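Quick one, probably user error.
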């Protein structure tokens, strides 16, 4: 990593506990560090959109299989970064309460929406139950896509 620019290092660090790192830096410098690309709210939004678009491109194949699951809302500004959800779910939810990128479907600047298949909703229920901040909640009952 020593040959990478600060901006490249920032994106390398985005994979694990991205929210913790981004929000911590945003409190240090209100306008964001220009070496890391500036405005952290924009970087957070760009990161989520990039991950969502990559997943959409990868999965943009017709499927005859219907999936059942629930839509999960994660309020990115409410996380307490306590790692309780991570411990309770065996790492399925990370230390910032973030669901895995493979399931992200939309980010509106405040909430990250994820489609969680029925087979995994019981794991997310554990994280919701233990979360002290209330950053995770179900947006829908079971739906079929």
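Nope, works fine. Designed sequence:
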């Amino acid at each position: 990593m020593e040959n990478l620019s600060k901006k490249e290092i920032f994106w390398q660090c985005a994979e694990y506990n991205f929210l913790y790192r981004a929000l911590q830096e945003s409190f240090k410098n209100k306008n964001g560090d220009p070496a890391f690309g500036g405005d952290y709210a924009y970087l957070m939004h760009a990161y989520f959109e990039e991950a969502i678009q990559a997943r959409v491109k990868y999965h943009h194949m017709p499927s005859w299989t219907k999936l059942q699951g629930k839509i999960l809302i994660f309020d990115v500004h409410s996380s307490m970064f306590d790692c309780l959800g991570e411990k309770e779910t065996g790492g399925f939810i990370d230390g910032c309460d973030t669901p895995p990128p493979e399931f992200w479907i939309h980010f509106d600047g405040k909430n990250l929406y994820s489609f969680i298949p029925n087979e995994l909703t019981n794991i997310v229920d554990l994280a919701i139950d233990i979360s002290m901040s209330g950053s995770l909640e179900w947006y829908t009952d079971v739906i079929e896509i």
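The CA atoms of residues 69 and 120 lie 8 Å apart.
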